[in-house]
Amino acid sequence: MSPSSSNDVGELYLQHHSWIVAMLRRRLGNREQALDIAQDTFVKLLRSELPPLLREPRAYLCTVASRLCLQHFRRQALEAAYLDSLALIEPQHQPSEETRLLVLEALDAVGQVLDGLGSRVREIFLLSQLDGLTYPQIAEQLGLTVNVVQKAMLKAYRHCYAAVYQQ
């Protein structure tokens, strides 16, 4: 995809920036976060292909900004869970700040890939990959056939492959 015309995004920015910041501020309760996500919204538009005609530019901007908000909240929850798990580790075994940031980035990337899976496929994939269950065990636990589990795993593997190798 070719990047959007900066003139088109510039026009959207001029016409709707203050509106999107106000909407995000109401949703987030924080002006600085609202400004950050509004900025990320327009950067995302600059890097993507805008539809040729935006009939409802505010609805489009709201969708992009809402997805960025969800990513923001998911990353916050992930960071909190990671910090909670680090609190259980003895101080001498704590990772460096650089390692913490690298781990958070990796976890965020994995989370984004997994978010692209349907809930059932994600559950099957995690039972297999994290819990080490066999396909028959997953099928029994979820009340599915082994064939359904196999198809879900194939879908998950294809999705993961596409996310990693076909960006």
TrEMBL record:
One of its GO terms (molecular function) is sigma factor activity. Residues 12-77 form the RNA polymerase sigma-70 region domain. Residues 108-160 form the RNA polymerase sigma factor 70 region 4 type domain. It comes from the Bacteria. Gene3D superfamilies: 1.10.1740.10, Winged helix-like DNA-binding domain superfamily/Winged helix DNA-binding domain. It holds the Pfam family Sigma70_r4_2. GO terms for biological process: DNA-templated transcription initiation. SUPFAM superfamilies: Sigma2 domain of RNA polymerase sigma factors, Sigma3 and sigma4 domains of RNA polymerase sigma factors. InterPro entries: RNA_pol_sigma-70-like, RNA_pol_sigma-70_dom, RNA_pol_sigma70_r2, RNA_pol_sigma70_r4_t2, RNA_pol_sigma_r2, RNA_pol_sigma_r3/r4-like, WH-like_DNA-bd_sf. Keywords: Sigma factor, Transcription, Transcription regulation. Belongs to the sigma-70 factor family. ECF subfamily. PANTHER family: RNA POLYMERASE ECF-TYPE SIGMA FACTO, RNA POLYMERASE SIGMA FACTOR FECI-RELATED. This is Sigma-70 family RNA polymerase sigma factor.
